[in-house]
Amino acid sequence: MTILEQAAQAKAASYSMMNLSSSLKDDALKKMADALEHNADYILEQNEKDLAKGRESGLSDALLDRLRLTKLRISAMAEGLRKIAALPDPLGAEDYVIKRPNGLAIGKRRVPLGVIGIIYEARPNVTSDAIGLCIKSSNAMLLRGGSEAINSNIAVADTVSKAAYEAGLPEGSIQFIRDTSREGAIELMRLSGYIDVLIPRGGQALIKSVVKNATVPVIETGIGNCHTYLDDSAAPDMAREIALNAKVTRPSVCNAMETLLVHEEFAKAHLKEIADALKEHGVALRGCKRSLELAHGIEEASEEDWTCEYYDLILAVKVVNNLDEAIDHINKYGTKHSECIVTKDYEAAERFLNEVDAAVVYVNASTRFTDGEEFGFGAEIGISTQKLHARGPMGLFELTSVKYVVRGNGQIR
Amino acid sequence: MTILEQAAQAKAASYSMMNLSSSLKDDALKKMADALEHNADYILEQNEKDLAKGRESGLSDALLDRLRLTKLRISAMAEGLRKIAALPDPLGAEDYVIKRPNGLAIGKRRVPLGVIGIIYEARPNVTSDAIGLCIKSSNAMLLRGGSEAINSNIAVADTVSKAAYEAGLPEGSIQFIRDTSREGAIELMRLSGYIDVLIPRGGQALIKSVVKNATVPVIETGIGNCHTYLDDSAAPDMAREIALNAKVTRPSVCNAMETLLVHEEFAKAHLKEIADALKEHGVALRGCKRSLELAHGIEEASEEDWTCEYYDLILAVKVVNNLDEAIDHINKYGTKHSECIVTKDYEAAERFLNEVDAAVVYVNASTRFTDGEEFGFGAEIGISTQKLHARGPMGLFELTSVKYVVRGNGQIR
What band does A203 get if pLDDT is binned at 50, 70 and 90? Predict the structure, then answer.
């Protein structure tokens, strides 16, 4: 089947998806979970093919680990689907109904987006997560995973699709694209009229390619050049703990800190100690000239360090004169993902929250909390860094649109 | 100034726009209204240049009328700005604040989008409306009007900008682009990183060019191939009045009806009378084979008639076997704008509302009500026909985004 044929099938199925009952969807999700566990041996066999190919082509251990499935990881995928089944249905309710003077009753109803396209890389668990979230939000879908995980992805997609269709989901609503060519990806990005939103999940190169090539509506996700600003009045222990947490707990994710900004007064008193703590945790520091004078073992930063998302145990450090300089730096170099101030000062906290332009702004908490589960939304499909439609962690609600439902009795204008 | 320099100024100003007080914005809007009335003679003089050029180049009377300003029309523009001032500020409030088990308080705050780009055609009143709505929603803006209205648009934009800046709006927040070349428009569509959303307001060619060329997020607007379906059980008088109203009151707008679908039983009894009423109002009819047998003076329709937005006193007519065929026809040929069923039957009404995929679905009311003012939203910036971010009439609320504001006391993950 061509990608266009798959898209047409998804589009056709999307009309039936609009009116699925919650119980049918939840039943399907549970059966999909059971099928994953039941088919674990087959999925692991297919995963082994990808791992073998990965080892041959010299993938790093970290990438091989992201690619690897185990019985435990398959159970976690199944558990993820069961958790999605347990979430409330985001559809059908009306946000409000207003009555107009002429008697028209106008209701704003939550409806599915229609067809969601998702382009992603590496981890095969995204396949089942994405299918689960799209089903729960009554969206048909076109999924395209990376070539390195193609056998695993097909095994997972086939397993859960079969279970979903047996449970009554409209045939054709789940489309996994087997063509992993670059041309195939670009074709997907240009399916205007078939795809209602395209969500790329991956590195900067993927996001850029989508923004450049797509003619369908896109939600940009996951590019996080996140900052933590330690204000003059910050509590030193809290400042150190938040900085450490934001950098070292999982440097490869988008909500990890990439640049530490430090008020000059605070830097004079505490930068040395905080830099030492970071170095103890294996973090390489690249700092501005002033930071080099205040602490040891910092390499001088270049302009590029302020724009870079390291995805690694590397941290840029900059001493700033005041809050204004910190806010300006963040608004200039940040990617509008997650930004934090550590402070005891009320006015500084409020100004930071008001003036920093980002999806999530924090006072006195690690940027690592930017996550659908941590926000209480349940599973997430990604972190939006654009302002249109969805911003920050995207859960089920962000996979819906609205429709105005107007009831009259003969009104004309 | 180049378009890129204008975009950079708008972007820089957008950060100051984020924290404007409601009273400053409303004061600016009122002063802008006064300035329009005060400068009316100058604006009319500039408008006369556009009209002269239009007459020279042979613009139709209808287009010349759309281009023409009068003292009355300028007063209406001023009144429009005063009405926007009187609307509630859409910003600053938080939709909710949730408290997480770890003590984090997560608030979802309404914030501006940032920089809004608007490409529009013909009518110079759009210039002041768009500037007013962007200011009230605290967005900086890049506006590009059509070449045929360039002198009028510059006069309006200069007049209101001067008043706005005198009232304290950040310098550079209102950018009107004087370059009306096609290359200029395409440059605007590709200002990734400067424009947070681009809204094209105009005909199908403009919308298509934007969808094809834009790399910035876009909201598609205003393409309306709207249907009215007369069900078997429709009250004949109501059916006729709604059909007439939807077609003849203003055929050039996007919420006007383009195709009338008629249940075969209803058609046998009433199509002749309804067709006669439409013809009396000057409507030319293009119908399916069955409709030709049931009424006089209908020309046979071609496939193109089902897809066409006439913008004129022309109507396509199709007799259908039942509700299913009507819904399928609409979902196949409609542009997801506004769709109506006239019926007395409860189940037919509910099925139509549930199964037709459009921004606004009506039971027993004219599609002509799809409009920001008619919905009670106040002035509108356009009618979105896409599902991402905004759907249907876009008022001030649709010109906002959100930001998560997280308050902690040292939480780490």
Answer: confident
CATH topology classification for A3-221+381-407: Aldehyde Dehydrogenase; Chain A, domain 1 (3.40.605)
A361 in contact with chain B, both atoms CB, cutoff 8 A: yes
CB contacts, 8 Å: A218 with chain B: 217
Chain-chain contact of A353 with B405 (C-beta, under 8 angstroms): yes
β-partners of residue A105 are A99, A407
Label residues A118-134 b or e (16+ Cβ within 10 Å = b). Answer: bbbbbbbbbbbbbbbbb
Residue B109, token pair as written in the block = 């705050």
- Tell me the per-residue pLDDT of A288-302, one tens digit each, with 9 for 90 and over: 999 999 999 999 999
All residues of chain B having their beta carbon less than 8 Å from the beta carbon of residue A370 are 404
At the fourth CATH level, the homologous superfamily of domain B226-369 is Aldehyde Dehydrogenase; Chain A, domain 2 (3.40.309.10)
Q: Which residues in chain A are contacts of B218 at CB distance < 8 A? A: 217
Alpha-carbon distance B74 to nearest alpha carbon in chain A (angstroms): 25
In this prediction the ipTM stands at 0.94
A307 shares contact with chain B (CB less than 8 Å): no
pLDDT at position A254 over 80: yes
Of A211, A359, A403, the CB nearest to B359: A403
> Model confidence at B3, in pLDDT bands (50, 70, 90)?
very high
Q: How far is A262 from chain B (nearest CA, A)?
A: 17
The domain ranges of chain B are: 3-221+381-407, 226-369
- Strands ordered across the beta sheet of B226-230: A94-99, A105-112, A400-411, B360-365, B338-342, B226-230, B257-263, B314-320, B284-287, B298-300
Q: Quick one: what percent of chain B has pLDDT higher than 90?
A: 91
Mean pLDDT for the stretch of residues A323-334:
97
Cut 0.90: pTM above it: yes
